[in-house]
C-alpha cells in the first residue's frame, strides 16, 4: 500500500502495510510471514537473507529497503516510502560485519562471551553452530566430537555455511572460525570469488589437511597451534603459505586455546588474540 494511505489502526493484512503489494506479499508469505503482527521483533536483514535462500535468487537490495520500512512501521515508526531506508541499508552493507563459526562445542556461554568482547567493533554479529544455538554443555572434547559427528559432520557443516554465505556476498565482513568451524571456512573459501570485501580468520583448523588443494578466493589468515597430534604444523604451513591470499601464523599455544571449555585453554593466548579479533 502507498505509505500515504496507510492507517495504522486498520492494518490487518500484509497488503495494508506500507510499500506492500501483491508481489511483496508473496515474498513475505514465502518466508513464513503471514500477518503484520508476525513482523514484530523481526530483523529486516535476516528476512532478506531468508528470502534469498528460500527462492535461490539474490533479490534486488530495494527489497531490503521495503523490509526495513515494514519492520520499522511495526515498531512504531510512521509509514514511510521504501527509499527512505536506502541510505541506512547501504551503510549497513558496508559493515563491518562478523560471521562466527563455532567449533564442536557449539554456541556455548563461553563463545558468546568471546563475541560480546568484540561485538562493539562490528555492525552485526551472526553465529553459525552445529546445534541450532543450543548449549549442550559437553563435559569433554571427546563427548563433543562424538556428538558433532553424529548430529552434523564436517561435510554438512560446510554445506550449511555455504548456504548462509550465498546471501552475504556484498557485505564487508570477517569470517571467524575455530577448529572445525575454521575447517568449514577454509573449505568454502575457494568458492567465494565474488566476495570482494570478505576476509577469513581461522584458528587451529582441525581438518585443514583434508583440503590441501583449496586455493582461497578471499584473504585468509590461518592461525596454527604450536603442534597438532594429527599432523605436522610446520609441514602444513610450508604447503599452504605459498598460496595466494593465505597468511600462516604459528602461535605458541595449543589447539583449543581460545575455548574456555577446552583443556588447552590459555588465558594469555585468549587475551592476545581476542584483542587481535577486536581490532580488525
Keywords:
280 residues, alpha/beta, 6 strands, elongated
Can you lay out the helices and strands and say which pair or pack?
Elements: H1 22-30, H2 44-55, H3 61-74, H4 86-94, E1 97-101, H5 109-118, E2 124-128, H6 141-151, H7 154-165, E3 173-178, H8 180-188, E4 198-203, E5 219-224, H9 233-240, E6 246-250, H10 267-278
Parallel strand pairs: 1-2, 1-3, 3-4, 4-5, 5-6
Helix pairs in contact: 2-3, 7-8
Quaternary status of these chains?
single chain
Contiguous runs where pLDDT drops below 50 for at least 5 residues: none
Instruction: Determine the structural class based on helices, strands and strand pairing.
Output: alpha/beta
What would you report as the Rg, rounded to the nearest angstrom? 21 Å
> Main sheet: which strands, in order across?
2-1-3-4-5-6
Helix content: 25-40%
SSE string: HHHHEHEHHEHEEHEH
Described by the principal axes of the CA atoms, the overall outline is elongated
* Strand coverage percent: 5-15%
Instruction: Give the integer mean of the pLDDT values.
Output: 93
What this model shows, in words?
- Strands 2-1-3-4-5-6 form a six-stranded parallel beta sheet, with helices on one face.
- The protein is of the alpha/beta class and 280 residues long.
- Strand 1 (97-101), helix 5 (109-118) and strand 2 (124-128) form a beta-alpha-beta unit.
- Helix content is 38%, strand content 12%.
- The protein is built from ten helices and six strands; from the N terminus they run H-H-H-H-E-H-E-H-H-E-H-E-E-H-E-H.
- It is elongated, with a radius of gyration of 21 Å.
- It starts with 21 loop residues before the first helix and ends with a helix.
Amino acid at each position: 500500500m502507498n505509505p500515504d494511505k496507510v492507517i495504522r489502526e486498520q492494518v490487518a493484512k500484509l497488503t495494508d502495510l506500507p510499500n506492500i503489494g501483491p508481489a511483496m506479499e508473496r515474498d513475505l508469505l514465502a518466508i513464513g510471514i503471514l500477518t503484520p503482527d508476525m513482523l514484530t521483533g523481526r530483523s529486516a536483514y535476516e528476512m532478506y537473507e531468508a528470502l534469498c535462500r528460500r527462492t535461490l535468487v539474490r533479490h534486488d537490495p530495494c527489497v531490503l529497503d521495503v523490509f526495513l520500512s515494514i519492520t520499522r512501521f511495526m515498531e512504531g515508526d510512521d509509514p514511510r516510502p521504501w527509499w527512505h531506508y536506502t541510505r541506512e541499508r547501504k551503510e549497513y552493507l558496508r559493515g563491518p560485519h562478523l560471521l562466527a563459526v563455532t567449533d564442536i562445542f557449539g554456541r556455548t556461554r563461553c563463545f558468546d562471551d568471546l563475541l560480546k568482547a568484540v561485538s562493539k567493533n562490528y555492525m552485526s554479529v551472526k553465529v553459525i553452530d552445529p546445534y541450532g544455538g543450543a548449549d549442550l554443555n559437553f563435559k569433554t572434547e571427546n563427548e563433543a566430537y562424538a556428538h558433532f559427528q553424529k548430529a552434523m559432520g564436517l561435510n554438512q557443516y560446510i554445506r550449511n555455511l555455504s548456504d548462509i554465505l550465498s546471501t552475504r556476498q556484498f557485505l564487508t565482513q570477517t569470517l571467524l572460525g575455530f577448529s572445525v568451524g575454521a575447517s568449514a571456512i577454509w573449505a568454502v573459501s575457494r568458492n567465494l570469488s565474488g566476495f570482494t570485501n570478505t576476509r577469513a580468520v581461522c584458528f587451529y583448523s582441525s581438518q585443514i589437511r583434508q583440503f590441501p588443494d583449496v586455493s582461497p578466493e578471499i584473504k585468509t589468515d590461518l592461525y596454527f597451534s604450536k603442534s597438532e597430534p594429527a599432523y605436522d604444523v610446520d609441514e602444513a604451513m610450508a604447503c599452504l603459505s605459498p598460496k595466494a591470499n593465505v597468511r600462516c601464523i604459528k602461535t605458541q599455544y595449543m589447539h583449543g586455546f581460545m575455548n574456555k571449555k577446552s583443556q588447552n585453554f590459555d588465558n594469555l593466548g585468549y587475551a592476545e588474540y581476542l584483542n587481535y579479533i577486536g581490532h580488525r
